[in-house]
Structure formats: structure tokens, C-alpha cells
Amino acid sequence: MSEMLDARHAVYVGSFDPPTLGHRDIISRGAGLFRHVTVGVGINPDKSPLFSSGERLNLLREIVAPLENVAVECFEGLAVDFVRQCGASVMLRGMRTLTDIESEFTLTLANRSLAPDIETVFLMASEQYTSVSSSLIKQIAGMGREGSVNQLAEFVPESVIEPLLSKYRE
Ligand code: ADP
């Protein structure tokens, strides 16, 4: 508990199944505020994600390639433990709506009791990403219409579209 954690280093954890424009927006805002940002792709053995952790890692690495102070890693276990392993003292979270606040509030209090020396910082994405979620994107892609390419382009980075559609062709 007594090691020095870096307040200029923020860790942004999530499932990123798949990464969205909302996630990218939060990452680039974080990269503008902190000296270093680590994106942590959570591996949850109880969930069966659409994209494997390796696929999510690669998609995110491509998305953050233009940002030189951002790295992407996978992690298992508690997010606060991963933040500590990174040597960071900031956990970055994104906010969409008022309903996000309720669940984030509970999570933040739980994380604070587990790790009082790690501070959670919330950033708001740009307004046009307020309704963007990974689950919405999977619903659109799952409808299987090739015409969904145009809709998907509003929600996910270009590089995610083809891998996403190919999941539903398999
Ligand atoms: P989780 O499964 O942990 O919710 P997500 O990958 O869905 O992981 O989200 C990770 C973080 O990004 C969370 O803080 C979430 O609120 C935030 N987030 C997700 N989508 C958006 C968005 N469109 N705008 C802003 N923040 C977002």
C-alpha cells in the first residue's frame, strides 16, 4: 500500500467488446490530460465476449496508434489491482448519461474501499457518443444487413467495422 503511485498516469479499464468511438473519445481526452494512459482490457472468465481478449487488444492498439502516450494491456482480476500494477493512482471512467452515474457511483465507492489511494476520474464523451454502447453495436451488426456498415460507422472506428461484421458471417 505504501508504494508511490503516479498521479500523472491514468488507467482506463473496460470490456471494449468491441471498442467504440465513445471509448476512443474518452481515451484521447485522457491522453490530453495525463502524461500516460494505459487502457486495460478486462478478461472476465465468467463472460463470453464476442471478441477474444487478444482481438480486443489488437483492435484497441490500432485505434490508439496515433496517441504516443497511450498503451494497451490485458488484465485479469480486480481493476484496482491492475491500476496499482501499472504504478498509476488514477482510474479513468467514461460517463454517458445520468443512469451511468448510478452504477459508476456504486463501483467507485467499492473501488475506493478496496484501494483508498486510487482516485477515480470521470470524463464525459462528446455529445454525439452519448447513446453509443458496445451492446447496441452488437445488436446492429447482428441484424446482418450489409447496409448496417453506414450505421456502424457512426459508432465504431473504421478498423472495427469489418472484424465486427465478419463475426456475424461466421
Ligand atoms: P464495462 O463492461 O466495464 O462497462 P465498457 O467497455 O463498456 O466496459 O466501458 C468502459 C468505460 O467506458 C466505462 O467507464 C463506460 O462508462 C465508458 N463508456 C462506454 N461507452 C461510452 C461512451 N459512449 N461515452 C463515454 N463513456 C463510455
Could you walk me through the main structural features you see in this protein, from its secondary elements to its overall organization?
With 170 residues, the protein is α/β, with parallel strands linked by helices. The protein has a single domain, classed as Rossmann fold (3-Layer(aba) Sandwich). It has seven helices and five strands; from the N terminus they run E-H-E-H-E-H-E-H-E-H-H-H. It has a five-stranded parallel sheet with strand order 3-2-1-4-5, with helices on both faces. Helix 1 (21-33) links the parallel strand 1 and strand 2 (36-43). The protein starts with 5 loop residues before the first strand and ends with a helix. Adenosine-5'-diphosphate (ADP) is lined by residues 14-16, 20, 22-23, 26, 93-96, 100, 125, 129, 132-134.
Determine the mean pLDDT.
Answer: 94
What number of domains? 1
Q: What do we call the CATH topology?
A: Rossmann fold
CATH architectural label: 3-Layer(aba) Sandwich
User: What share of residues are in beta strands?
Assistant: 15-25%
- Poorly predicted ranges: none
Instruction: Profile the largest sheet.
Output: 5 strands, parallel
Structural class: alpha/beta
> What do we call the CATH homologous superfamily?
HUPs
Number of distinct helices: 7
Rg calculated over all Cα atoms: 16 Å
What small molecules are bound in this structure? adenosine-5'-diphosphate
* CATH level 1 name: Alpha Beta
Helix/strand order: EHEHEHEHEHHH
Tell me how many strands there are: 5
What is the helix fraction of residues, given as a range? 40-55%
